[in-house]
Design brief:
Blueprint (H helix, E strand, L loop, with lengths): L1 H11 L7 H12 L5 E5 L5 H9 L5 E6 L2 H10 L6 E5 L2 H6 L6 E6 L9 H5 L2 E9 L12 H14 L3 E6 L5 E6 L2
Parallel strand pairs: 1-2, 1-4, 2-3, 4-5
Antiparallel strand pairs: 5-7, 6-7
């Protein structure tokens, strides 16, 4: 599956896929939430999706939201038979605003909505004990010049939260894991 996604990703020239180390962590975290309900904001071509699905049990569900139908079509092709997955083609911010609080056991925010905007609203979607994961928090050589201030803003906003337990990992592309306090 990963080879198929990788080849199609290269064909599309999509260069924003999650790193394998991030995927390995996503797989382990998903496995820690049996019968879980997962949200991925930013399907892309489906790398993160693949790793989340690999860690999930048969009774779990993953909703993955993407606003670019062209890149999401790769994931749609790759996972067409996996009934645990619901692919949603929609603006992530609009999707987030329609969700009920305490809906998800884990959220992987890999797009602007949920990471760079609507952070408070996104965290409210987590169930007690739920996990919030973001990547790409370390500067990358391929970032546009205006991207670093955005990432730095997210880090500053996360540091200001006092109702969470969090850890930053200086690993892969830079990860932050967070659990809201109950």
């Amino acid at each position: 599956m990963i080879n198929y996604i990788s080849n199609r990703t290269k064909e599309l020239g999509f260069d924003m896929a999650s790193r394998p180390q991030t995927g390995a962590l996503l797989r382990v975290l998903a496995a820690s939430k049996p019968k879980g309900t997962f949200l991925e904001i930013g399907t892309g071509t489906g790398f993160g999706t693949a790793w989340l699905l690999e860690g999930m049990d048969a009774d779990s569900k993953l909703i993955s939201v993407e606003s670019d139908a062209k890149v999401q079509s790769v994931a749609k092709e790759a996972f067409q038979r996996d009934t645990r997955l619901e692919l949603v083609y929609e603006n992530g911010a609009k999707f987030l605003k329609k969700q009920a609080p305490n809906s998800f056991d884990m959220i992987f925010a890999d797009a602007f909505p949920g990471k760079y905007e609507l952070l408070k609203e996104t965290l409210e979607l987590l169930k007690p004990g739920g996990l919030y994961v973001v990547d790409d928090m370390l500067p990358q050589i391929d970032w546009p010049a205006d991207h670093y201030p955005l990432a730095k803003g997210v880090l500053e906003n996360l540091k200001k939260l006092n109702n969470v337990t969090s850890v930053g990992l200086h690993w892969s592309s830079g990860l932050i894991l967070l659990v809201p306090k109950t």
